[in-house]
Amino acid sequence: MPKKEKVGKVVSNKMEKTIVVAVQDPQPHPKYGKYQIKTTKFKAHDAENTCNEGDTVRIVETRPLSKQKKWQLKDVLERVQEL
């Protein structure tokens, strides 16, 4: 069975070896059918602390690493330019 993958933006990297990734998912309204963007935040394991806020990353589902961490950083798709 293939593992689940999600693409999102890093919204926080203040924890050690952990990032918070916001994933946007368009879903239709149940009655009217207009698409609304639902944002879900996932905590993911970043072993080398390589990500910064604003980076676009791909995360993959893994075994539970802690109470809330069940995702792991797979790769960084786009980095934010630092000033």
Can you walk me through this structure?
- With 83 residues, this protein is mostly beta strands.
- The protein has a single domain, classed as Nucleic acid-binding proteins (OB fold (Dihydrolipoamide Acetyltransferase, E2P)), CATH 2.40.50.
- The chain is 0% helix and 53% strand.
- The protein is built from no helices and 5 strands.
- It has strands at residues 5-12, 18-28, 35-45, 56-61, 71-78.
- The protein has a 5-stranded mixed β-barrel with strand order 1-2-3-5-4.
The portion of residues assigned to helices is under 10%
Spatially, the strands of the biggest sheet line up as 1-2-3-5-4
**How many discrete structural domains?**
1
> From the alpha-carbon coordinates, what is the Rg to the nearest angstrom?
14 Å
CATH level 1 class label: Mainly Beta
How many H/I helices? 0
Outline the biggest β-sheet: 5 strands, mixed, barrel
Give the CATH topology. Answer: OB fold (Dihydrolipoamide Acetyltransferase, E2P)
> Which structural category fits the helices and strands?
mainly beta
- Say which CATH homologous superfamily is assigned: Nucleic acid-binding proteins
Q: Approximately what portion of the residues adopt beta-strand conformation?
A: over 45%
**CA(first)-CA(last) distance:** 42 Å
Number of strands: 5
Coarse morphology: globular
CATH architecture level-2 label: Beta Barrel
Mean pLDDT: 95
Uncertain residue segments:
none
